[in-house]
Amino acid sequence: MAAVAPAAAPPAVEILSVEKTYPNGTRALMPVDLTVQQGEFVTLLGPSGCGKSTLLKMVAGLLEPSDGRLLLWRKPVGQAEASGHRLSFVFQEATLMPWASVMANVRLPLDLAGVARAEAEERVMESLRLVGLDRFARNLPRELSGGMQMRVSIARGLVTRPTLLLMDEPFGALDEITRNRLDSDLLQLWQSRKLTVVFVTHSIHEAVYLSTRVVVMAARPGRVVEEVMIDEPYPRGPEFRVSTAFAGHARRLQDSLLRASAEASGSDLA
Question: Of 47, 43, 21, 23, which Cα lies nearest the Cα of 34?
Fold first, then answer.
């Protein structure tokens, strides 16, 4: 099992009474408090509209909170790299440049950072090997399957050598077989690269399979309703998906989501 950093290490993420209200008055998130320790794989689970992606984008610095504070390794968002840490964000879609090769797509963050071409290409090939696509470096995105395109997107996220990986439903549009395979590959990367991962999904089964901890969220307005530890050993293989333990965790998460949904419906009728 991948070891979570000792308590003495600073948390990777601290979300302190963070909330979000948009200019039109829509309250996307009630105040949220959440701490993610280094080495954890934390999944935000909930229905559409519960603020999962909003919260993740605020952690990434892509959205500003309306109130509260966000810290990465005890520093404000945007200053974490000064302490030697980096974060990468993997979006729902692969968002690849269709006219550029796989290598050029993965190299983009390094080009923007002014990394020398020789070093950049060496790091690109390292990232492509990690996701099993080094043989496709010269291909165009249209020549790849949907699952392979998502691997390219993950390689682009890894090429900066992050310590924190934020992932916003990256496998949601893929078929179940491809999704399960990429989930397994992601766990291997998490362990081998000693990453901290915050992952967004609406799939109960994906949350159970991947996570050390699942944060259950509800909508209208978005809020955290429960945190569930998935205290099962790694590596996790196909047999875990059909185990009694897996079914028990899935049932608990389903019950939590159903209770949250009922509460939301009740408040709508009030």
Answer: 43
Contact 56, 42 (CB under 8 A): no
Neighbour-count burial of 212, counting CB atoms closer than 10 A to its CB (0-12 exposed, 13-18 middle, 19+ buried): buried
pLDDT 10s digits, 221-239:
899 999 999 999 999 999 9
Q: Is the peptide bond before 11 cis (omega within 30 degrees of 0)?
A: no
Helix (H) or strand (E) run with residue 33 in it: strand 27-36
191 within domain boundaries: no
Task: Round to whole Å and give the CA distance between 26 and 255.
Answer: 27
Closest CA to 183 of 160, 203, 162, 157: 203
Is residue 199 in some structural domain? no
Q: Residue 193: inside a domain, yes or no?
A: no
Q: Look-up: residue for tokens 């893929």? A: 174
Range of the domain at 119: 94-161
